[in-house]
């Protein structure tokens, strides 16, 4: 195994920083053992190039087998799926047609109901307009009657006033003649 650092330089560095030669060598040997252990663990998980080639060939053969299986499935299963899919498409078209027919019926019913409601509202408005017109006529008739009555009372009051004035004048002229 190769180490990727200079162990002697590390021993010298440790000695310069206050470690004894024996302490420095023990530390470096411990580090080397740790690195060896770590490298052993890493090498156990690693694959050699030959092993990788073998694994690649195995994967490629599996892929070839899957391709063959897919071709067979495509011929048998996919044709069945296609026919099933066609059946479903036909059913969907029929359902779509039924739904469109129902929508058309509902629209027609709604239009009919809407037109009926419009005619009912128009009839109601016409009845209200007739009632208002009759009420206006009654009010106009009553107002005209009241005006006529007011004019008649006014004329009566003028007659009584004129009669009272002439009576007072007559009485006054009678007294005036009596004293003269």
From TrEMBL:
User: What keywords is this UniProt entry annotated with?
Assistant: Coiled coil, Membrane, Mitochondrion, Transmembrane, Transmembrane helix
Gene3D superfamilies recorded: 1.20.5.340
Main localization category: mitochondrion
Cellular component, GO annotation: mitochondrial inner membrane
Where is this chain's protein located in or outside the cell?
Mitochondrion membrane
Q: Where are the transmembrane segments?
A: 160-179
GO biological processes:
calcium import into the mitochondrion; positive regulation of mitochondrial calcium ion concentration
Q: Which domain of life is it from?
A: Eukaryota
Which portions of this protein are annotated as coiled-coil regions? none
Q: What does the similarity note say?
A: Belongs to the CCDC90 family.
Q: What is this protein called?
A: MCUR1 regulator
């Amino acid at each position: 195994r190769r180490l990727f650092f200079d162990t002697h330089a590390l021993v010298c560095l440790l000695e310069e920083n206050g470690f004894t030669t024996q302490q420095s060598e023990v530390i470096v040997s411990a580090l080397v053992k740790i690195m060896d252990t770590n490298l052993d663990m890493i090498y156990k998980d690693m694959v050699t190039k030959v092993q990788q080639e073998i694994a690649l060939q195995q994967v490629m053969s599996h892929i070839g087998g899957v391709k063959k299986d897919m071709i067979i499935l495509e011929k048998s299963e996919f044709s069945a799926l296609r026919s099933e899919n066609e059946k479903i498409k036909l059913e969907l078209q029929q359902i779509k047609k039924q739904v469109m027919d129902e929508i058309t019926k509902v629209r027609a019913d709604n239009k009919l109901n809407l037109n009926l409601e419009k005619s009912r509202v128009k009839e109601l408005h016409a009845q209200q307009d007739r009632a208002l017109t009759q009420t206006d006529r009654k009010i106009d008739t009553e107002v005209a009657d009241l005006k006529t009555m007011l004019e008649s009372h006014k004329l009566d009051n003028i007659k009584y006033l004129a009669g009272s004035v002439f009576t007072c004048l007559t009485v006054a002229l009678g007294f005036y003649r009596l004293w003269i």
